[in-house]
Amino acid sequence: MARTVWLEDGPELRQHRPAGGSQRHDGYERLDSEILAGRRLYEVADWGNYPPEVARLYGDEAASADPYSLFEPYHGQPLREVGRYIIDDEFDAFLVSLLTGLCWLAAAGVAHRAINPDSVLWDSQRRRVQITDFSRSTLFGVPRTPVTGSPDWIPREQRSRTLYGNVGPRDDVWAAGRLIFFVRNQGEELVNRSQLTDSGLDGLFGGLFGQVFGPPEGRPTASDLLEHGLHRRSPVPPAADGSARLIAGRGRFLEARQRRHHGAVVPRDFNADIDWMGEPGGAAPAPDTSPGTSTAQSAASEGAAGQAGETRAGPGPRADNRTSETGRTRQFPWRRGD
Fold first, then answer.
1. Considering the domain boundaries, does residue 22 fall inside one?
2. What DSSP assignment string belongs to 123-179?
3. Does residue 275 lie within any of the structural domains?
4. Per-residue pLDDT at 67
């Protein structure tokens, strides 16, 4: 559930909260996904270089019984509405921007799992894509779970009847390929492979594009399409460079999540994406973030990386301040001050 809020002497923001009623539990899970994806992008971007190709998390309240996330205003219109008007050199800018956004997500170890003409926006003035809605996102390395929605935008390995394997950097490429075809052909949806020949996309990507629609283990990554297909350099840092920061940020997130979800169990494969990154000499050890771990124990295991992530609270929403467990107004405890 989204609404607009304003901060005192601050910007207009989008606030997302779980819906009420029977969908409340699912809403909590989706909000967790949004918050975790946003925090991980901050960590891998080293805070100062947040990519404009993805929606920007401004702050969140993750620990209370009435949690929310705050996003900076979106830029652009859904491709469902404007995709058919992107032509010529603007189409080239679209390709580079979309693949750059997916490369940033891969660097953060996040699969979006809902790439489609409604979740991806196009800003014609900036000539830039913005990927929004991380409510169905998950982490690389964990077993795949079914994704609901139109089969036009969900690959077979993510559908309930044909589900298999673990999430990885190729999971979003299938839907991204269909989105590229959708824009290239002014809103036409891909029905069969013969349409690819007529579109000229395989030639544009040096023969890589047709592989996008095969099994995930044989697909190119977004980085492959950008660098080897379009011959453009990716501005995204190597994924392994951010693994220590990602572990520290995740530890703080889990503490907040467990305060809200009493008895919550840490997923067994929660650090699988860090293992997947495979730093030289082995992945950094994950902090002990089981429900019985105290804040002090977790902070000790995070070490200097955890200290670097502590932030000054920003201003709270005008009509929605609340009191935290310590009696102080909880605002944005993880966000860096200006």
1. yes
2. ETTTTEEEE---TT-EETTSBP----S-TTSS-GGGSGGG--SB--TTTTHHHHHHH
3. no
4. 86
